[in-house]
């Protein structure tokens, strides 16, 4: 591919982006789309929808949303999206910063050196091959490689400095979040699983005895988890039936009054009995309470008098059989994934292993579509194998589209299926919270992307004829150094298509828009089923941003032309995600910034891989001294990572005792405790429809 | 090598073993060697040494020590050597059992199949090559490989069953050990490191404030750790000088009385002042107390009122800066490694990384002697390179010694240097307890042995001409399957020489014997400097036993002839180690059975590796169905391991809360607590020589 091919791709994508952004600007002004584009505000304010006047203004694209998104302060983001959203945006901002530095260094220092690296006659720039701009163009043993090494040092050091301050800042924010959510019931609650079964006593009785015996001073009450698979179904079916009968009864009441009232007096009365609420609910509850005692499962939420007592009870080994009385801090009430709480604890490890194997299987099977995509980049191979295509592939425009656009599109389409699959795996795994499930899916998707988008592309690109992916374990650095630069073109187009297009799709929300359109204008239904239920898809967006960061680091030195496109991506991403967090997504649960360590470690991994590849490249260029000079950099980066892991990471795993004790004291002095205890009795509701019956905690 | 070569080696070693064991029997009856062979009894009873009569009985070897060792019950072992010794012996017993089963299966089923595996004319057995008895002799695609697969299933299943019951049993013993050591001060004590520094207050003051603030109800007192590097040196120098002066003064007192008393009256008096104990110690203490306040370091032992409170305070995150107030449960008083307590906490991670790198470096550098040993096995290669050796190597006896004996001896000599080096690394690493240091050294030596004795031998054996050790990462199983069986001969002789000889050397204690001889008969000194200070060298013996187990598993199917030699080794080891634990080693500190998980995981690793190698071998023999049949076995073994890890391992990391709370209640009811508190005040002594001055804890 040459410069003009790249520019074609860039042109197509810039055009598409502009079109979509303008379209968004217009569509978001239509009152009928309010539920799509302002889901959060609707959920927060429950405002009465204005029936907008039909003005000219509504149909002119304007950049007002950009201004609003740009001007939103950190506090606003925190208020709208919680700490997770802020952490995510900090990641985007970090990427903007570091790649600005990298772009300045690499475009003004590295790019000219690459271009003039070999004594050769340069052609007219638009028809110049992209290879000329990569490190491949520097001749062997050149002194100019010192400049590359210098650029690598600058990028690594500034990345570490920025990462350190971000980590410090986010740790501070997490502590503030812990202190700030002082009324959160989850801080007083632990989840116990693996309660030992006894034929004489109910689980509830066993839990009460255990905690009154061993935690007498701090134990407050508990709430047993019920088997949800069957009960919940019965309950929700009953609730639905009741709702249906009530609806029909009231309708028929009206109807009968109007039409049948004179015919017979009995019918209206019989319907009225069913419709009168208190009695029927009472009857249902009787059924429930007697039935539920048999449906208890070996898990319970236990409430404590202080936060510190809850933390203590959630830590360490409780009983001499480690499979019994397994404790964890409970998630927030909205965050609890009730369905998984009833999974027997002894099943969990098998589930974890199974899903791990399934994820690895998916990662391996995905090589097939990636191999197909790669084959499109090697047109000569295809032409050899399928001679009938030769005529078509002579057309220059088609070649440009096929090599510059099609591979990424195909890959993107396949990739759309991955996050739901990983989410399914994470559900089967058995996490106790929705945020935990999302975090676990995020890891899986991240590993998947880095493996399948980067490594498989890189390695299969060099070894397209043989299926052996990793043929030799020795000198990985040299292997990568030969393979990675060759794929620069592919990844440039990948950033353009996948990156930019994903932002357009993110802001347009095509799926939601279609649903809304279908709902409003075809079904003529004014109830929005999705209103205020959309939560930020961290499991797709975090891995995507991290993948682009990863590509940015690895290619910054090798093919600096990728950096401008990446910078545009990150700046747009900053705007788009800010806008989405402020307007669309509703935060009903969060991890409290626990995504940051993932981001940090991925960035460090990218840095180290960049350094290793650079070392390999310098070695291949026969500049062993320069190559040796990168070794201390690798060691320092790893040491820096280790330091950060020790200095900051523990706060993302445990809540510090000192802080909790101080919070407890504060609340006790203010007399807020009684209020919290009262709240605890009813806040965790397994079956929302019959909250009164099931949520009564055992004192 | 042929059978007769092997028998030569076995003969030499059996003879040596008999000689050494008889020698031990005689030597241990000599009263002068009591301190060498009965160190423990001497330490325990402080018995008056009997000046034995010169009877004929003393010079006749007798098997009485074998009977005594055999008859010792589990309780006696536990009383003499603690839980660690018992766990170690359980490992040996487990090995005896599993290799008895393996030997029966493999000798009666696998060995004949190997021998008659190919249609060939068998020679007279003594001159038959050892290769004939290995799996290499089975022809490709043979149905008899199903018998090998069956044997593998039997061995794996019985190993898992035995391991499960051992783990269960040892977990029970560990719980009993926790409950049994109810008066142990370490259960009430935590070690705090990373105390924040303040210019206004001393560390002691800061600790007192922190714990009275946050742990007011359970905090008892604390004891600051002092910088030992300088202070301890000054202190011990002072103590030594004082001791010296005292000695010389008393001597001179005597001397002056006899000779100089009439010349001047002043000299005796001036010496007497120095010699009078109370005053001078008082003076020294004055110096100490004022000096020590400046020498406090940021670590302290904090005592709590209950065991449970100590466990709570030792768990989780204490402060919002994870590098401050880092807590661990304290080791036993005898177990504390005081020197390391004063290391600033923030240094520890660097130390850990450094020692890790150093250990890996040592492992890699060790390839050089191993390569030399390997070259001795390939005599043809050597003859090619050094033609002048051809004459010498024509002598059959020399060839047998060189191939059958010399390589193992050289390897053994080099290996002697490894445990001290690893111990040094483990010391630098900064563990807080002696037992922790030993455990860490044990890991290092274990990895070292398995890597350097097994893998490097196996892989360099196949690739002696090229230096590339691991050339290909793909199909590891096939690689191992070709490489491992070739080294069967070497490992058989290794078991004979290294294994049997190590037992002879263990029971003879040649170094101690020489020291004792030198001390008693050359220096004429009756003080035994080593009396009662020798603790069991787990860091050399555990890895050794595990290595032989590892070799036994991997070669049981491939070359069953190794099993009889191994069985002899394990039966002898059982006797010898029992005897040593009962008589020689003194247990002043222990880990409480924490060596068992290491043993368990190593055995599982050996099993899985055996299965992988078997899979590879079956694959190479073109029996893909048999090969596929081993896959479920590998999966089941890994699942079994995961189950054990979840079911038993946590007890080896934490003490269960339930047990501790019950112990606390028991002691409170019995009124034993006050006694324990009193004991706590003085039991942790950093400077044993000036215990009064430093060990006063701050209430």
UniProtKB/TrEMBL annotation, chains A, B:
Residues 6-166 form the CSC1/OSCA1-like N-terminal transmembrane domain. It is found in: Membrane. Residues 187-340 form the CSC1/OSCA1-like cytosolic domain. The keyword Magnesium does not apply. This is CSC1-like protein. The chain crosses the membrane at residues 6-27, 98-117, 144-165, 356-377, 397-425, 445-464, 545-577, 598-619, 625-644. It is a multi-pass membrane protein. One of its GO terms (cellular component) is plasma membrane. One of its GO terms (molecular function) is calcium-activated cation channel activity. It holds the Pfam family RSN1_7TM. Its main location: membrane. Belongs to the CSC1 (TC 1.A.17) family. Residues 351-618 form the CSC1/OSCA1-like 7TM region domain. Keywords: Calcium, Ion channel, Ion transport, Membrane, Transmembrane, Transmembrane helix, Transport.
